[in-house]
Amino acid sequence: MTTTYFTPKLFEFLRDLEENNDRDWFKAHQSDYERYVREPALDFINDFAAPLRSISEHFVADTRKVGGSLFRIQRDTRFGKDKTPYKTNTGMQFRHVMAKDAHAPGFYINLQPGECYMGVGLWRPETKVAYQIREHIDAYPTEWKRASRGKRFTDVFTIGGDSLIRPPRGFDEDHPLIEDLKRKDFIASTRLTQKQVTSDHFLKDFSDYNKRAAPFMKFLCEAVGVQF
Fold first, then answer.
1. By CB distance 3.0 to 4.6 Å, which of 129, 164, 172, 204 could disulfide with 182?
2. How large is the greatest C-alpha to C-alpha distance in the chain, in angstroms?
3. Is the dihedral of CA 98, 101, 106, 110 positive or negative?
4. SS3 for 150?
5. What number of H helices and E strands is found in the chain?
6. CATH top-level class for 8-71+84-224?
7. Cα 108 to Cα 19: distance, rounded to the nearest angstrom
8. Helix, strand, coil shares, percent, the chain, to 5
């Protein structure tokens, strides 16, 4: 059975929010947010739980409205110069059961006008964890290359994120995997179209893409000492 979760109304709402990013406007249009953004996202999260379990039973599809897989629409404006109160994207992350925050292995999806994509991996880990991953790559280079360069993976995903300018401490600049070892982010992503996101087979496509990323995620989980 196929289901359409997201419609063009989601993108219309986010465009309008970008042009009217204030609390009064949002309060007046909160029913649209619930109908076109939050409720479809929570339905998607709920229905992805079964495919996610088939990939790994150690990742969670959490349908709570607060603190679950769906990121809150409100921005934290305490420390940044941008004081607009709302995000203009819809983000969902399916985190490892041991994760305490977004800086942990996870499957991620971003829905935004002109900027839809999904990602896998571990974004900006703390220094200690980054070194665990680098040491695991150094110790198991064949497994890393298989996980990060396998055709089923690279047909969909491209590894990205930021890197150190110089080799990390303890690794020689002539190391054959030095560009991987210099990474600060251990993530891969693929762009999505609005047509894909609003199709009735999007859940199937999203599940298939994440299955392709399983070896990459397994390697990272092993590197940081959690089960996959």
1. 164
2. 59
3. positive
4. coil
5. 11, 5
6. alpha beta
7. 26
8. 45, 15, 40
- One digit per residue, the tens of pLDDT, for the chain of length 228 reads 579 999 999 999 999 999 999 999 999 999 999 999 999 999 999 999 999 999 999 999 999 998 899 999 998 877 777 789 999 999 999 999 887 765 668 999 999 999 999 999 999 999 999 999 999 999 999 999 999 999 999 999 999 999 999 999 999 999 999 999 999 999 999 999 999 999 999 999 999 999 999 999 999 999 999 989
Single-letter code of the amino acid located at 226: V
Distance CA 221, CA 143 (A): 13
Q: pTM of the entire structure?
A: 0.91
- At what angle are helices 39-55 and 202-212 packed, to 10 degrees? 40
Which residue shows structure tokens 């009064």? 24
